[in-house]
Amino acid sequence: MDSKIWCVHTMIDSADQARLIAREAVEGRRAACVQIESGITSVFRWKDSLESVPETRLVFKLSSAGKDALISWLRDRHP
Questions:
Q1: Under a CB-based contact definition with an 8 Å cutoff, are residues 54 and 14 in contact?
Q2: CA–CA dist 10, 52 (Å, integer)
Q3: Which of 13, 49, 62, 68 is the most interior residue, by most CB within 10 Å?
Q4: How would you classify the pairing of strands 49-63 and 33-46?
Q5: CA–CA gap between residue 13 and residue 20 (Å, rounded)
Q6: Partners of 8 in the beta sheet?
């Protein structure tokens, strides 16, 4: 049995949306725990313009057996 713990990170631009996704992930047993980190600023280039936006980071903690399912779910669920 593989007992490794995985952490999967993603960023969301809305704290309310982050809480909703975290709750759905844990309720649906896609993750054992989700940490929500607010107050993050992301700086990036978009269409030749420098952007700076507030974001919320989600850190999903789960077993290695569930990582592919979580990633697939996040691709469908992420705004």
A1: no
A2: 17
A3: 62
A4: antiparallel
A5: 13
A6: 60
Would you put residue 11 in left (φ > 0), alpha (ψ -120 to 50) or beta? beta
pTM over 0.90: no
Is residue 62 packed enough to be buried (19+ CB in 10 Å), middle (13-18) or exposed (0-12)?
buried
Cβ contact 59:35 at 8 Å: yes
Residue 78: both structure tokens together: 């992420």
Cβ–Cβ under 8 Å, residues 13 and 53: yes
DSSP assignment, residue 32?
A: S
What are 23-65's pLDDT values in tens digits? Answer: 999 999 999 999 999 999 999 999 999 999 999 999 999 998 8
